[in-house]
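User: Please fill in residues for this 222-position structure.
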């Protein structure tokens, strides 16, 4: 089985790459941000508790996200592997993840750290559009939908995330930077970390990730 984790600042392109990678490698994509947003839309107790943290650009409490993730990893589709995006965000979550995976005889094979500068991030998030129905990502300039305001994949309406306002993006970056170094060290010590620049075109970033993934895991070549 191939467990892949994508780390990086908000807006680095984790979601964009995770969707493409999941298609290429035929593995399920698990995004904690997406699961939380779906809970908010569905007005679940998790969504009600998480919404305020998310709108303020803060991390949702660890226990809440861990509970949510445990039930996702109980599904059978993760047995052959997974692409995890948005988790872990801090050292405590990294250790929780090891416990969740270990208890299910799953493991992380590689961790990709997508690096990007603050200017690129702010420009990307200011222009991001998300599909309300299928959560596909677009960008007003970099990756515009074929028809303005409409998802290319499912024809539903696109919207701008509440937490993509500039002041909230700055808060998210601040929260991210406080925790990033310890997380990077954690996976570096395990010799699982691959660091790459996410500033290039999405196709180039994807081919770099795939090249490394194929080198690291022979089972992906089949
Ligand atoms: P989450 O949804 O995970 O947000 P994030 O980590 O801040 O990341 P983003 O989704 O903003 O960015 P991304 O890196 O996926 O970039 P994307 O591909 O969309 O989390 C949201 C909130 O949920 C958190 O703030 C927190 O409150 C909560 N949460 C989630 N997980 C949690 C956890 N584990 N613990 C606690 N709380 C948690 O790309 C961005 C834009 O750029 C798009 O428009 C895209 O089209 C464009 N783009 C992407 N790549 C490129 C490229 N190479 N070139 C040009 N444009 C590009």
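Assistant: Residues filled in for all 222 positions:
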């Amino acid at each position: 089985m191939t467990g892949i984790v994508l780390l990086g600042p908000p807006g680095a392109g984790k979601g964009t790459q995770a969707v493409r990678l999941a298609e290429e490698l035929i593995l399920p994509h698990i995004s904690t941000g997406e699961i939380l947003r779906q809970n908010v839309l569905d007005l679940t107790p998790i969504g009600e508790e998480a919404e305020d943290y998310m709108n303020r650009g803060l991390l949702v409490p660890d226990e809440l996200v861990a509970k949510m993730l445990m039930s996702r990893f109980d599904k059978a589709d993760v047995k052959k592997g997974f692409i995890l995006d948005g988790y872990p965000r801090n050292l405590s979550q990294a250790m929780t993840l090891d416990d969740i995976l270990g208890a299910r005889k799953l493991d992380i094979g590689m961790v990709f750290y997508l690096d990007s500068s603050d200017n690129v991030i702010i420009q990307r998030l200011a222009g991001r559009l998300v599909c309300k129905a299928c959560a596909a990502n677009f960008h007003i300039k970099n990756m515009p939908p074929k028809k303005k305001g409409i998802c290319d994949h499912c024809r539903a309406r696109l919207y701008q995330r509440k937490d993509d306002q500039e002041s909230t993006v700055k808060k998210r970056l601040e929260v991210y930077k406080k925790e990033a170094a310890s997380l990077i060290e954690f996976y570096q010590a395990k010799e699982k970390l691959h660091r790459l620049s996410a500033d290039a075109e999405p196709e180039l970033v994807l081919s770099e990730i795939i090249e490394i993934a194929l080198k690291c895991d022979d089972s992906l070549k089949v």
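For context: The first helix runs from residue 14 to 25.
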